[in-house]
Amino acid sequence: MNTFSLALAESLAMVGRLDPKLVEIVALSLQVSLASIALSALVALPLGAAVAVASFPGRRAIVVVLNALLGLPAVVVGLAIYLLLSRAGPLGSLGILFTPSAMVAAQAILVFPLLAALTRQVVADGYEETREQLTSLGASTWTSAIALLVDARYTLVTIVLAGFGRAISEVGAVMIVGGNIDGVTRVMTTAIALETSKGDLPLALGLGLVLLAIVLALNVAASLVKESVQRRHG
Amino acid sequence: MPPLLPLVLDEVSFVAGRRTILDRVSLTLTAGTRTVLLGPNGAGKSVLLRLMHGLIPPTTGAVRWNDENASSLRRRQAMVFQRPVLFRRSALANLRFALAVAGVPRVEREYRARNALARVGLSPIADQPALRLSGGEQQRLALARAWMLAPDVLFLDEPTANLDPGSTAEIERIVQAIHDGGTKIVLVTHNLGQAKRLADEIVFLSGGRLRERSEAARFFRQPTTAEALAYLEGELPWRMPSDVSP
Ligand SMILES: Nc1ncnc2c1ncn2[C@@H]1O[C@H](COP(=O)(O)OP(=O)(O)OP(=O)(O)O)[C@@H](O)[C@H]1O
Ligand SMILES: [Mg+2]
Fold first, then answer.
1. Longest CA–CA separation in chain B, Å
2. What does each C-alpha distance from B114 to B93, B119, B144, B208 come to in angstroms?
């Protein structure tokens, strides 16, 4: 047997027996990414809807910036947050650099443009079709935005799932602000990078398999949501 | 509260880019009657309806209601569009939403929404997703939503386009019932049979101008403008010209 098949067999065994080290890393990954996506969505969804529906000065600028930020390089986000949180930085007094909190912040910021821009697009499409009816009913801007978010709820689920997938598979930013400290800030992606360079292929491969499974499951979930909606709601 | 009507259009024009879509239309709409707007495609009927309903402002001229209070203007009018605009919720929830927007207290909404559904014969489908209903059912739901708030004026833009004869008759029955309840009806249609059945008066538009306005029976018996005559002949190709102008 070659190195690869040995490593693969060992990694499957680790996943199978729920190796504590592996479980710890996966658990932290999930916690960090769930927290970051929840935080980000809480702001990005209402903002995206507001930008789609309301007219206020600077609205177009926000749309342009949001779309531009879609291609935000993760390492740059990491670097910016590092500078903010480092002891000499403006938020240094928080003392959260190299903690999971910093990683949550990094991932939340990283997925924010994705969530906000896609939400804006979906809500704007809905608004185009319903604008005159909403005006006719006498709905305020705020009421219209909420109604359109509710209308787009199933699409929003798939958007959030996509955001979660991006957050959990990102490596550059969490590496910089988390520091990849064993047992504290080591998540799947940073662990894979480190273990691979150290030559501990079974752990790296095991984590890789888990990550792959999570991302695949997210995609399956997204398409299931979409299908069931089309079946039930037209 | 002063009556909402009459509605006065004073030399109303609507210009989009360089095109004049409505050209100095002056018109007074009074309470009590059913007004039907007729005219060929592109005449400006839908634009006129949206102007009256306050969805778009006139480029020049004025749209004046007897009661100019801003919240009255919204709450006391309703409009039903050619393609019903419904939300991705149950039929009943669509009505509850409109009631909430209109400021109806939560405890009353369920009852009033169910009542409105019953009046258009949709009680059995109360809990079905609105977007899954048939075209005719969707249009009845849109009518229920408009009717529910007892508007002083109801604008309808071709509410039976694309509906079969049965559904069309059902919609006409509902429009008549809404009118019997004291709501002014302003309806756009290309269905001349429908215009004859529903209209008290006809307002005829073509090329963005008001060509003719007359009592319905007289309009069909004896249109006074060449445009109206041509339209009636075009819409009823099987009729001999002698039938139209005796
Ligand atoms: N917002 C707009 N901007 C530019 N042109 C418009 C706008 N709205 C309508 N038009 C044009 O104005 C003309 C009149 O449109 P309108 O929809 O009122 O016609 P209509 O009488 O309702 O016709 P139909 O019987 O086909 O419904 C059309 O040529 C249309 O293309
Ligand atoms: Mg029209």
1. 60
2. 10, 9, 10, 41
CA A104 to chain centre: 10
pLDDT in tens, B24-36: 999 999 999 999 9
Write out chain A residues lying below 8 Å of B129, CB-based.
Answer: 232-234
Supply the residue whose CA is at minimum distance from atom 2 of ligand 1: B16
Q: A3-233 — its CATH code?
A: 1.10.3720.10
DSSP letters, chain B, are ------EEEEEEEEEETTEEEEEEEEEEE-TT-EEEEE--TTSSHHHHHHHHHTSS--SEEEEEESS--HHHHHHTEEEE-SS----SSBHHHHHHHHHHHTT--HHHHHHHHHHHHHHTT-GGGTTSBGGGS-HHHHHHHHHHHHHHT--SEEEEESTTTT--HHHHHHHHHHHHHHHHTT-EEEEE-S-HHHHHHH-SEEEEEETTEEEEEEEHHHHHH---SHHHHHHHHHH-TTS-HHHH--
Q: Which domains, and CATH codes, for chain B?
A: 7-241 (3.40.50.300)
CA A154, chain centre distance (Å): 17
- Whether ligand 1 lies within 6 angstroms of the CB of B84 is answered as no
Is pLDDT above 90 for B233? no
Q: What is the ipTM of this complex?
A: 0.92
The single-letter code of the amino acid at A114 is L
**Among protein residues, the one whose CA lies closest to atom 13 of ligand 1:** B42
Separation of alpha carbons A144 and A132, rounded Å? 11
- Calculate the CA B102 to chain-centre distance: 20
Distance between CA atoms of B149 and B147, rounded to whole angstroms? 5
Sequence ranges of the domains in chain A: 3-233
pLDDT tens profile B201-218: 999 999 999 999 999 999
Burial A36-55 (b: 16+ CB within 10 A, else e): bbebbbeebbbbbbbbbbee
- In DSSP terms, B185 is beta-bridged to B34, B154
Ligand 1 center–CA B225 separation, angstroms: 22
Residue in chain B closest to A132 (alpha carbons) equals B55
